[in-house]
Amino acid sequence: MERRKLLSRIFEPHPASPGVARYTNAVLRTQNDKEVRFYDDLIRGRQVMVQFMYAECRGACSLTTQRMKRVYSQLKDRMGKDLFFYSITIKPEDDTPAAMKHYAEMNNVDLPGWVFLTGDPEDIKTIRFRLFGMGHPGFDLDDAMHAGMLRILNDNRNSWGMAQAFASDKHILKRISWHDPQKSYAERVIDNRSLQVAIMKDVKKYGYRRDV
Amino acid sequence: MPKNEANDRPEIEEKTEGTISRRTVLKIGAAAGAAGVLAPSVLDPKEALGFQAVTEPVLCVQPSGASPPHHPFVDEFTAPIPADDHPLSPQPQQFANIGAGEAARAPHQRWAQFAPAHFTYELEARAGLHQFHSDYGQSYIWGFNGQYPAPTCLNKYGKSTVVRFRNSLPTTTTTFGRNEITVHLHNGHHGSESDGFAGDFFGTGFFKDNFYPVIYAGLDAFGGNGDPREGQRTQWFHDHRAEFTLNNNVLGLNGIFFIYDEKDPGHENPSAGSLQLPGYYGVTDFPVILVDHRFCPTSGGRTEIVNAAGGDKFIVNGKIQPKLTVRRRKYRFRFLNTGPTQTYDISLIKPDGSVGTMVVVATDGNLLQNPLPVDAGANAGNSNSITAPIVPGAIRVSVAERYDVVIDFTEFAAGSKLYLKENRTMVVGNPSPDPLPPGLNIGNVLLQFNVVNREPWFPKDTPPIPATLTEYPPLTAIDNTWEWQFVRDPACPAGTTPVPPRLFRVRRPFDGPLGCVFDAEHPAHCILKGTTEQWLINNNVGGSAWVHPVHIHFEEFRTEKRFVNGVEVPVWPLMSGRKDVTRMEAGEGALIRMQFRDYVGRYLIHCHNMAHEDAFMMVRWDITDDLAACLAIQQVCNDVQQCVPN
User: Fold this and answer.
1) Is the pLDDT of residue B43 over 60?
2) How many other CB atoms are there within 10 angstroms of residue B415's CB atom?
3) Do B272 and B297 lie in a common domain?
4) More confident residue, B332 or A60
5) Same domain (yes/no): A86, A164
């Protein structure tokens, strides 16, 4: 009962969520060739981290994917339940669901809660624009501009953030945690206690609060 | 249009933009009704007491429309009420009082030296209602003690202070605010555990005691309360929650903090050492807290703040176009721009339409060595409105800058009216009730002064402003140099293209082109405690055409050189004193020198355009006793792959 309540709370979109108006409800295809609607099936009420990539990319994308994989392993318990990773191709013309599946398998990241997405090029352009767009076509429509940053959002809290893909794992984990579902006061009291223990250890070690 | 960055809010609009359907409005109502069902098993203290928050706003249907019209000069201009100094229960302590609900933090530095606190304030962040104009309905705000602007803290050097910042914001909110806070006192000299570090935010139901010893910098070198030449007069506190600073400040989580001492004692009597500047708070000495908002009328008679880029209503001390009755004597006004993004060019307009004289006595709260009169005539050279659009005789105030000015109304006849003018134009919708000076448009007026004769009970005029206000501490020898670049367009090598999103970053010369995203866990620079550094702040990178008011926490700096497109130019008179914000317009650079004294910990340098800092044009630097250990965790930001071959 408690669990059900918790889940219903987590997956409810925030009342002020821009919903389909921002995210679109474009139909995309997963690496398993399943049709999904972008807002209703992938964003609605969820906390997600979005990467843009393409299957043939050998530089930045692979490094980012490897970094995401390490972060994934630390968040395994939440993945596919209340946290999801999406890797969306920016070259949907080349990247069929099979190509995306191949990429996921090659990188050992065909994992629960990590979805690889392709679809109509115009739809993907729109989604990219909406998630990373600066309102500047010169920047936003340039296909070379897809790596480096990870978009983190939580539709349940209507909150947006980002992480630098090349920074430390700790950096990405922390940026994700800043958009975690709202916790109860009781949970936060427990978190506060353990944070204090960690701070005191850190202060003892370095002379000031440095690493936590 | 480098100055006013109307479209300069990529992140925030994304967070909350969008129209809202009738169905969604109904859903909000349903969610409010279901709150009891969803309540967690352990209630936070406020919920347990049945604390009923102010009703949340219904979001605007047309957030892009203009604000409703208003009638000029209806409301009175007043100073925010002073905060109430009272004992705190439980008493503040050096180590976080976790059991009582204090948020986790490092122990207070120099507690034994300056505790117990002489002044103790409690400022509770909570939802409230505020009326920005008599023509308007109430607006939903987040304010300290529910007030907008927050109560003012009036302090004195040598009187240590604890401010207990309590977070009683709504547990869930439908607004664009984020119910987690970390409060920075700009620009206090105190431990980083009390500095409102951007990553140290805490949620509802908790409090945090910020310990401000309220001493002059230079404790270690000078002993006692430090070096009195380091005195700062006008500080302000505001929420600094990473990614949501703009949102929470737009909702109202900021306030002003005055510090007095013998030189500037908060009264006008001829006491020992006093400069006898106009000094009665709220009588002859006023903060002028500037912000711009856009409003929209909603159901239930509310007029809500829209989460918008630049507002179309300029607000001073929480009111739109208010009026102030002034006596024929001198007054002190302390301009503070709380943003969130726009820069003001403020001039004084006399009844004949010409530009009046404002005498600047302090920059960013630091007394100038010699007062600087600013006007469009003989003192035009002192104006800092020196790049387009140039406004003769104006004082340019970018976000977080403070300028304390003295205006002398003695020469104006009773019955005359003067105006504070902003260069941008706001939407008014009604004519001025009084004939305006020639050439003045009602849309440019921030505040109207009505001059009357001094009544016998009103304080007599103060003596002339002394020619020398203070002596600057000498510049100390440089131990290290450092460069910070404020970048938007990375300088990628020819044949390559920078990767997205091309946002706002701080970059060190050895970083990849895009520079650093704010990383709460790693310092971007390490400084040995007690040393002096010379920093080059540079906004001369790539094709950037944006204004960046660069703020450095913890210590004041002196400007040694200024550059435009790499060419040295004279340091503008208003930048010649001590400051903690240096305004970097497109192509500008500054060579500044500062010391890092008395405390260790994590501090910040960031652009104070709140949209930029939320987009992470902000980095952490540390003061440490162990430089090698700190350097070991300093990372190079980015990667050459950030420049992708074409």
Assistant:
1) no
2) 10
3) no
4) B332
5) yes
Q: How does the average pLDDT of chain B come out, rounded? A: 88
Residues of B in contact with A133 (CB under 8 A): 10, 501
pLDDT band at B543 (very low <50, low <70, confident <90, very high): low
Categorize the per-residue pLDDT at A185 as very low, low, confident or very high, splitting at 50, 70 and 90.
very high
Which of B258, B285, B312 is where one domain is finished?
Answer: B285
Say whether both B434 and B484 belong to one domain: no
What domain range is A20 assigned to?
A: 2-181
ipTM: 0.88
Name the maximum alpha-carbon separation found in chain B. Answer: 77
Residue that has been written with the tokens 């850190």 in this structure: A202
Task: Yes or no: say if B313 and B427 are a contact pair by the CB < 8 Å rule.
Answer: yes
Rounded Cα distance between A130 and A148, Å, is: 17
Interface of B with A in 181-210 (CB under 8 A): 192-193, 199, 202-206
Dihedral of the alpha carbons of A171, A172, A173, A176, in degrees to the nearest 10:
120
Please indicate, yes or no, whether residues A101 and A22 belong to a single structural domain of this protein: yes
**Which residue range(s) make up the domain with B148?**
10-57+81-285
List the beta strands (DSSP E) in A17-158.
27-30, 35-37, 47-53, 83-89, 114-119, 149-154
Chain A residue numbers touching B7 (CB-CB < 8 A): 135
Say whether pLDDT at B38 is over 60. Answer: no
Chain B CB contacts of A134 below 8 Å: 10, 500-503
Instruction: Name the closest residue on chain A to residue B639, using Cα atoms.
Output: A166
Amino acid, single-letter form, for residue A61: C
Overall average pLDDT of the B511-524 stretch: 84
In a domain? residue B589: yes
pTM above 0.95, yes or no: no
CA–CA separation, B151 and B135 (whole Å) = 24
A197 shares a domain with A112: no
Residue of chain B with shortest Cα separation from A166: B638
Mutate to test the interface with A, among B9, B12, B15 (most CBs of A within 10 A): B15
* Span between the terminal Cα atoms of chain B, in Å: 30
Is residue B301 assigned to a domain? yes
Query: What is the tally of structural domains in chain B?
Result: 3
B397 CB-side CA count, 13 A: 31
Query: Residue B25 — pLDDT band, cuts 50, 70, 90?
Result: very low
Select from B267, B285, B303 the last residue of a domain: B285
Locate B360 and state its tokens.
């600047």
Which of the residue ranges B26-30, B443-447, B613-617 would you say has the lowest mean pLDDT? B26-30
B500 and A22 in contact by Cβ < 8 A?
no
Residue at B2 is within a domain: no
Helix residue ranges, H only, B453-564 = none
Instruction: For helices A60-74 and A169-177, give the axis angle rounded to 10 degrees.
Output: 60
Helical ranges in B59-116 per DSSP H: 111-114
Contacts of A210 in chain B (CB under 8 A): 602, 622, 630, 633
Per-residue pLDDT tens over the stretch B159-171: 999 999 999 999 8
Residues recorded for chain A: 212
Q: Which residue of A has its CA nearest to B200?
A: A212
Residue B638, chain A, CB below 8 Å: the answer is yes
| Contact call for A144 and B40, based on CB within 8 A | no
Per residue in A77-97, pLDDT (tens digit) is 999 999 999 999 988 999 999
B292, B306, B318, B281: which is closest to B149 by C-alpha? B318
| Domain presence at residue B321 | yes
CA distance B396 to chain A (A): 28
Which of B197 and A146 is assigned the larger pLDDT?
A: B197
Of the candidates B73, B83, B58, B65, the residue with the CA atom closest to the CA atom of residue B138:
B58
CATH number of the CATH domain containing B417: 2.60.40.420
Of A100-104, A165-169, B184-188, B313-317, the range with the lowest mean pLDDT is A165-169
